Amino acid sequence: MLDKRMTIDDIVGQLSDGMTLGIGGWATRRKPMALVRAIARSSLKDLTIVTYGGPDVGMLCAAGKVRKLVFAFVSLDHYPLDPHFRAARQNGAIEVLELDEGMFHWGLRAAAMRLPFLPTRIGIGTDIINQSGFEFKFVTSPYADGEELVAMPALNLDVALIHTNLSDERGDILTLSADPLFDELIVRAADKCFASVEKIVPTAELNMAENCRYNLVERPMITGIVEAPYGAHPTAAAPDYQIDLKALKAYTESAASPEAWDEYRAKFVDVSDADYLAAAGGAEAINALPKPVY
Amino acid sequence: MTDTTYSLAELVIAACAEAWRDSGEIMATGIGPLPRIGAGLAKMTFSPAIQTTDGECWYTSEPVPPGKRAVQPELEGLANYDRVFSALWSGKRHAMVGPVQLDRYGQANISVIGDHRKPKSAMLGARGFPGNSISHPNSFFFPNHNNRAFVEGEVDFVCMAGYNPARYRNGQPPKGLDLRIIVTNLCVMDFGGPDHQIRVVSLHPGVTFEEVQENTGFPLARIAQDIPTTPAPTAEQLAIIAGLDPNNVRASVFKDNPPGVRG
Description:
The complex is a heterodimer.
Chain A: H1 8-13, E1 20-23, H2 33-41, E2 47-51, H3 55-62, E3 66-71, H4 83-90, E4 95-98, H5 101-112, E5 117-120, E6 137-140, E7 148-153, E8 157-167, E9 173-174, H6 183-188, E10 190-200, H7 208-211, E11 224-227, H8 245-253, H9 258-269, H10 273-279, H11 283-287
Parallel strand pairs in A: 1-2, 1-8, 2-3, 3-4, 8-10, 10-11
Antiparallel strand pairs in A: 5-7, 6-7, 8-9
Helix pairs in contact in A: 2-3, 3-4
Chain B: H1 8-17, E1 27-30, H2 33-44, E2 52-53, E3 58-60, E4 75-78, H3 81-89, E5 93-97, E6 101-102, E7 108-109, E8 112-113, E9 121-122, H4 129-135, E10 138-142, E11 179-184, E12 187-190, E13 199-203, H5 209-214, E14 221-222, H6 235-244
Helix pairs in contact in B: 1-2, 2-6
């Protein structure tokens, strides 16, 4: 039988210095935080991170793992600005390629389609196309309109990391949140994808006849899976659990000083997943988190 | 005349709502409490066909209040991000957003203050501003009308395209660029001056053109020698606003929640 189950350490062992990692989710939703914390603990360095950024970005910046960030925003939603990300930017510690959210989508789609670029109007008239780190090129429509468009380059990824709700042992995943976000494209843009999942179940329990719309990609796209309950915490993995605002606040406060970060790191990063869950208040408390309002 | 009193926030909400008058059946996005309540006010009065979201991923039948909700809203459709992109690229959306800086061309910034490579202040990032700006109508809200918001030169990092010919290879912005109104704590402006010059179309009660100009880093046009006063919200509008914002979030936007008519 096909069995793609791995441990978190197995997955981190598949990564290497200088890789380009796409991270799924969006801001405070479905970030594979158990995997992110494991990367923060590892000896990996010089990573290029490509993501609709949430606390994953700031945490990896604070841990010194990031050489370059490809992003459209980094936000913690209810705490709009991530102080770890801001510090990394303001210290000039990371290179960036800043994109519009839709251009970012388009770059992933180009990579997923194995195309070198996709044309778009987005970026015209802005400084997005005038950044020092990347020279955007233009293409002219070959049709009668002759419009000049931006050639959004493919965002090719070495590895995609996503978090999802259910999977069987083969990697047939179900992402049950109402918004699938762009995890499908992150996976398709990458050579390999590792998914942390809330729960691994027998295939029959996926109830695919009912749930097929939640199956974002076919299983050959999924290289490995790890069961990581609460693996998105403090971000949401609805319908399993909601955003933990208190935990996000503790994360933002850890940017107050090097000592504060050391303390946060000792309590929430340099720990086993079981100890993390206990430090985060335990399963029952996370299950009881209220649905946030936006 | 009525003796109804109203707050500056309520005056601003009524002014924001005007952005969506005659907009037809489109997605209305108001970022921040006052534009959001403004979109709700437009929906509940003169633009019933507009669609508003819960800020997460649903279109709701009725506008959702900022803050706590007493009842779960009735959902009328899915507004996941992929579909928001598709909707906005179609042009069927009008957003009112709150940038940190705006310049004389309507170019807006929410990314960084200072040098992009090593900014003095890093903020959110460009988000969807570049695509929004050339795809569908956009309006703006600024809670503090001053020279740091309305900058003298160009904004530090252009996230939203504007009417700046130097930024376009053929001198012309894409057809979708359509900047509408700017609502501030002092006035309402639009882009109706010569060559899209920003012009004052109404002054909030007690505000002078000179005060607005002093607090703006570039020269403003005026709609007329005698600039109209921003219309006061009606009693009906005030009642609807109260219903749209039961948590009174609007009272926390301006320091000390000042009245609409300066004392």
